[in-house]
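re the bet — no i am not wrong, look at it urself. input seq straight from the record:
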Amino acid sequence: MDDDLLAIGQFARLSRLSVKQLRYYAELGLLVPAYVDEQTGYRYYRHDQARDALSIGLLRTLDVPLAAIAQVLDGATGALDGVHERLEAELARRRSTLAALERVMAEGLPSAPVTVADEPARRVAVVRETAADETDLGRATSAAVARLLAAAAPAGPPELIGLFPLDFGEAIPVAVALVGDRPVPGAEPDVLPGGRFARATHVGPYDQIGLTAHALLSWCAERRHPVRGPLREVYVSDPATTPPDRLVTHLMIPLEET
């Protein structure tokens, strides 16, 4: 046997990985032993495999999945691009969560003035998207808005209404409606029903709308108002010209007659 070979225990200490990890990476084909004794099953590694082993350990501390690590070790270009995008998105979600938590810490549990109003039926053009989960709602809503405005090319400020289910499943249907009679290419013509609605106004970033929705649903529950979806978000402000902390959004929930 080659004198350059190290037993798995020695190699584990050299590469700062556990024997269990080395066995697992071998099963995946990520870091295969240089030699396996057929009689004993003992595994041996070469000294020059330590660089790959240490690289695996480093990339795992950076939250890089094993499939991407295999591409990095193979020298694939751009293997870490997707990981970078995922971490950027996760960081943005964490910052949003932290901002919402800080608002609760400063102002207490959400509360907002709620009014009950009669709303007329409205003719709309609707574009639909699907959010993978609750954290994906912002992306899906923005995508729907972008598609709708690109197709409609409104001359003046558009009247946009987001439509969201009250109960979230594994995939969340999202719709954005543009109020008006004019047909919009690629959009579905529809009529938003009128009726009685409980309404609260949210002032602040879109990613904190959940706080005001909580207050609105709590108000309905306390007064024993049966509610039905979808939750409507009426976007009053233009996010292109309005600072995030001054964005105004009306939240509306249809009320069932008791």
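see?? The chain has seven helices and eleven strands. told u. also The radius of gyration is 27 Å. so pay up
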